[in-house]
Amino acid sequence: MNAPDPTAAAPRVRVADQGLLIRGALLADGTGAEPDHRDVLVTGDRVAAVEPPGRIPDQGRRVVDATGQVLAPGFVDVHSHSDNAPLYGPGDLPKLLQGVTTEVVGNCGFSLAPFTDTRQVRDYAAVTFPPELPFTWRGFADLFKATDAAGYITNYVPLVGHGTVRSVVCGGTARPARAEELREMGRAVAEACDAGCFGLSSGLAYSPGSFADTAELTSLVRHMPRHGIYASHIRSEGPGLLDSLREAVRIGHETGRRVQISHLKVPGRGSPDRAEQVLGLLRRARREGLAVAQDVYPYTAASLMLSACLPQWAHDGGGAALLTRLADPRLVERMRAEVEEHTGGGGGAEGGDWDNHVASAGYRSIRVASTATGTYDGQALTDLAAALGMAPFDTLVHIVRHEENRANMIVDTVSDDDIAALLRDEHTMLGTDGAPPGWGTSPHPRVSGTFPRLLRRFVRDLRVLSLPAAVARMTSLPADTFGLADRGRVRVGAVADLVIFDPQEVQDRATYDSPLRPPEGIGKVLVGGQVVVDGGRWTGRRTGARLTPG
């Protein structure tokens, strides 16, 4: 038999003359392998062929010339608060324009279901989600009927929020759950997972999640299926960080469920030893058999509710009770003392029982972000204090009262070195932690810039990650972690969620002053095989889907 001639032309692939042919791209396929030039054929909603350049005929096909561009799987935002996106106008355009094709929603203990029409539950929902939501549903089955009917701009991966469940069952009172309440919460978690939720999230820095003990959380996580995931905004991201991580790890070990540490960060600035302690703790948990991963956002500033600056006892009873306390001068003076003199016992900053952001960062590092009325959006707290003729603490209280606790803040917390240390870990993925669409006018710029910022600052500028490693962090790692079948890699048979970008030009343009400016360098985005972003603009197509676990 004659040996094959290595110089002979490779045979041309014979496939049906239809579909979209992406030609000449540098393929970063999501696996972490070195990118290589490939032509990719999309037919229907799937990748039909991945071949060396020139081997797929173009007759009868739409052709996209991606010469000089990178083709990658669509990015997965594992920490989103865009639960309301299907019910809001066009949807979550800032995510789509930066290449995000799939979002994990229901994080930090907040979800749109279950719901009961009480003042306490409505107030709790309004802290995170736009108040004009209709809330015509009660459980997730009814919620999903509404979101399915509306359609999805990005793929939708829902979690059920522990804080929402606790608010419905226990209200906002600072006490352990009673036995019957614990059973009722367990049933709610099981029903949510049966309806299509991928797992349970917790927001243990916020009331009422902060009032739950470890036993309650462990019990509820056990109501998830074995493939369910427990995603936790842990109790402390300040001095109590390590103990808070140990609690999440313990819950994972005791339940046998996968654990996701939400928006992991290292307190203080320039603390490489602290970062190594954090990563070392998680590495030990993995050696002991726990499936645990983490997500970050590539910014030095965090964003959370402005009222998180106040002691935990002030939140007992929910938002209405907080506003009542803020109208009592004696209680306000007690809060001021604990905030500014760092009193009170517990695990927070300088001895407080919560993460005292004033103690750790100072008033000058706090910026008011989105608020319900927009009156104070985008302004530094100290500038507002000067304009109002008030002390900074009184200004903080005034804003929380005026906005009825619907006010977020941005506070500078970490350094690029700390972020880089976390990004280098192979179990770190990306999440925007962005405010829901329609909630305020001045969100954190991460809502529009997270993924291009990673590619610009931490890949191209600082060289913290290689391009294929960064793409894997944004695609296959989250797809595998959350069990998203046929996503996260560019391969034959995979769903054609794809992004085409210029590796030399891609960059975030969102700033703290202009947080909704779209990125540059993201040329095309495909969701389910359809071009939904072309030339940096939305095409009007809503081709996402609600994904289901298992």
Describe this protein's structure.
- The chain is an alpha/beta fold.
- The protein has 2 domains: 75-300 and 414-485, Metal-dependent hydrolases (TIM Barrel, Alpha-Beta Barrel); 304-412, no CATH class.
- It has 17 helices and 22 strands.
- It has helices at residues 93-97, 119-128, 140-150, 162-170, 179-195, 214-221, 241-255, 272-287, 319-326, 329-340, 357-361, 381-388, 392-402, 416-423, 446-461, 467-474, 476-482, and strands at 20-27, 36-43, 46-51, 62-65, 70-73, 75-77, 100-105, 155-158, 160-161, 199-203, 229-233, 258-261, 292-296, 301-305, 366-371, 379-380, 407-412, 428-430, 498-501, 522-527, 530-534, 537-538.
- Strands 1, 2, 3, 4, 5, 19, 20, 21 and 22 form a 9-stranded mixed sheet that branches.
- Residues 1-17 and 343-352 have low confidence and may be disordered.
Strand proportion, as a percent range, falls in 15-25%
Gross morphology is globular
**CATH superfamily grouping of the largest domain:** Metal-dependent hydrolases
The main β sheet shows up as: 9 strands, mixed
Radius of gyration from CA coordinates: 24 Å
Q: Helicity, in percent? A: 25-40%
Write a brief caption for the model:
This protein is of the alpha/beta class and 550 residues long. A hairpin with an 8-residue loop joins β1 and β2 (36-43). The chain is built from 17 helices and 22 strands.
List the helices and strands and how they pair.
Layout: E1 20-27, E2 36-43, E3 46-51, E4 62-65, E5 70-73, E6 75-77, H1 93-97, E7 100-105, H2 119-128, H3 140-150, E8 155-158, E9 160-161, H4 162-170, H5 179-195, E10 199-203, H6 214-221, E11 229-233, H7 241-255, E12 258-261, H8 272-287, E13 292-296, E14 301-305, H9 319-326, H10 329-340, H11 357-361, E15 366-371, E16 379-380, H12 381-388, H13 392-402, E17 407-412, H14 416-423, E18 428-430, H15 446-461, H16 467-474, H17 476-482, E19 498-501, E20 522-527, E21 530-534, E22 537-538
Parallel strand pairs: 1-4, 1-5, 6-7, 7-8, 9-10, 10-11, 11-12, 12-13, 13-18
Antiparallel strand pairs: 1-2, 2-3, 5-19, 14-17, 15-16, 15-17, 19-20, 20-21, 21-22
Helix pairs in contact: 4-5, 5-6, 6-7, 7-8, 8-14, 12-13
